[in-house]
Structures are given as structure tokens and as C-alpha cells.
Amino acid sequence: MLGFISAGSPADPDPFRRSERLPIPAPFRRFGMFAAQVDGDSMTLEGGAGIVAGCFVLVDARDVMTDRGQVYAFQVEDGALVVKRLDLHQGRPAMHSDNARYPPTPLDRHVRNLGRVYAYSLDGRHWTPTKYRGRD
């Protein structure tokens, strides 16, 4: 299933309104995975690298074990999906953007972890594993 996931402000409570086939190479296929197209720049690193607007992400819906520094797909209270890095903010779990212009958003009981983002692709054909990013 291919839908949209925000890397910025949650905007779309109906992210799975689009269905399309993506050629996923065998090493990146996982049972229970889904793909989504990114909208927004909150996960874009300085210099334009990282998870950028328009790229695709693969989410392992069975990998919901939260690990600080990893990237996850979250569903927020209104049903919108966001892609963010999990870490602590003021001692509490929060969704962090890789783009420093976006502040952390604390997790609460209304936020649901949909799975770990384990790869991304700029063109839907060539996939790059996401990397753990420790924070100070």
C-alpha cells in the first residue's frame, strides 16, 4: 500500500487514498511492510540529504520496539501520519525532526507507533537503509 506521510506538520488524516506498485528489491521486502511517499522537509538534513519531500519510505509495521535515534512512522491524534526520529526531550519521549527548524513534539497517549522506517528512496527504485542517529 502506498500513501502519503508528512515530514513536517501533520496534514492528511486520510494518508492511504493512493495505491501504486513500487519495485522493492528482495533484500528490502519484509512481511507486514508498507510504503509511503514523504511530503515535507522536517527530515531533510542540512545540505539537502536524508529523507526529503517526494521520496519514498519503507516501514516495517512489525518493528514497533521504540529505540532512541531510530526513525519511525507515527499516527497522530487526527489520524495523520508523520515520519520522525524518536528521542527524548526534557526527559520524555518525543518525535524529533532531522531539520533543526522543527521543534520536538512530545509523545502522548494519542500518538501511535506504526513501525520503524528502515529504508528510503528518492526515485522508488534505489533504496538506502535509514541509519541510527544518536543525539547528545
How would you describe what is shown here?
There is one protein chain. The chain has 136 residues and is mainly beta. Helices cover 0% and strands 37% of the residues. The chain is built from no helices and nine strands. It has strands spanning 2-6, 33-39, 56-60, 71-75, 81-89, 92-96, 105-106, 112-121, 128-129. Strands 1, 2, 3, 4, 5, 6, 7, 8 and 9 form a nine-stranded mixed sheet that branches. β4 (71-75) and β5 form a beta hairpin. The relative contact order is 0.24.
Determine the fraction of residues in helical runs and give it as a percent range: under 10%
- Count the helices. How many? 0
Tell me the overall shape.
Answer: globular
Contiguous low-pLDDT stretches (5 residues minimum) are none
N-to-C SSE series? EEEEEEEEE
How widely separated are the two ends? 36 Å
- Average predicted confidence as pLDDT: 86
Helix/strand-derived class? mainly beta
| Oligomer classification | single chain
Number of strands: 9
Rg over C-alpha atoms, rounded to the nearest angstrom: 14 Å
What profile does the largest beta sheet have? 9 strands, mixed
How large a portion of the residues is in β-strands, by DSSP E? 35-45%
Give a short overview:
The chain has 136 residues and is an all-beta fold.
Descriptive key words:
about 140 residues, mainly beta, about 35% strand
